[in-house]
Amino acid sequence: MNKNCPEILQLRRDIEISVQRNINSPADFEFLSGVIWERTKTSISTSTLKRLWGYVDGADNTRQCTLELLSKTLGYNSWKDYTEHLEKENPEQSDFLTQSKHICTDDLAIGDKLELMWMPNRKCTIRYMGNYKFTIEHAENTKLSEGDTFCCRFFILGQPLYIDALRHSNAMPTAYVIGKRDGLTSIEKM
């Protein structure tokens, strides 16, 4: 199974939550290998874990036995039990946008401004520059800054805002999420 499929990405997040540690350094992979041994009495190499987490290059596919072992580390009997749990926990993974207030970038004209708000007490005014690109004109209580630029196609009330090609300070363009837990609390066209 491809290591970047949603179920494996969620498995990695659940493992990190379970061990109460972000896994992103050689010491973290050693630690995780030890936790897996303690919980399952089965060993796994740190290089297998590094490939799965994308820390080192390797095969894009993950072996079934690795998925079984990580699922057991979380207390499930098997990978199948873990994925069935995911399905029960989040049965509705898709929905139409017609029920939610949203703004589509295709409906904006160059120069249009939007005011975005999210918890806790975060606020940005952005201006549309064309080609799905926006510039931040005003930012309050956020890591984003005036003059930052990013790309985005949809703004959906109550949902996290995923932006791409964020240019912040002198850093390389990156992806960024706004309102990760509670989503956007307000979207207004000015």
Secondary structure class reads alpha+beta
Considering DSSP H and I runs of 4 or more, what fraction of the residues is helical?
A: 25-40%
> How many DSSP H or I helices?
5
Query: Uncertain runs with pLDDT below 50, 5 residues or more?
Result: none
Strand order of the largest sheet: 8-7-5-4-3-2-9
How many discrete domains?
2
Q: Strand count, sense and closure of the main sheet? A: 7 strands, antiparallel
- What is the number of E strands? 9
What does the average pLDDT come to?
Answer: 89
From the alpha-carbon coordinates, what is the Rg to the nearest angstrom? 20 Å
How far is the first residue's CA from the last residue's CA? 46 Å
SSE string: HHHHHEEEEEEEEE
Approximate shape: elongated
In what range is the share of β-strand residues?
A: 25-35%
Which short descriptors sum up this protein?
190 residues; alpha+beta; 2 domains; two-stranded antiparallel ribbon; 31% helix; elongated
Give a written overview of the molecule:
The chain is of the alpha+beta class. The chain has two domains: 84 residues, no CATH class; 92 residues, no CATH class. The chain is built from five helices and nine strands. The strands form two sheets. It has a seven-stranded antiparallel beta sheet with strand order 8-7-5-4-3-2-9, with no helix packed on it. Helix 2 crosses helix 4 and helix 4 crosses helix 5. The longest helix is centred in the first third of the chain and has 15 residues. The protein is elongated. The mean pLDDT is 89.
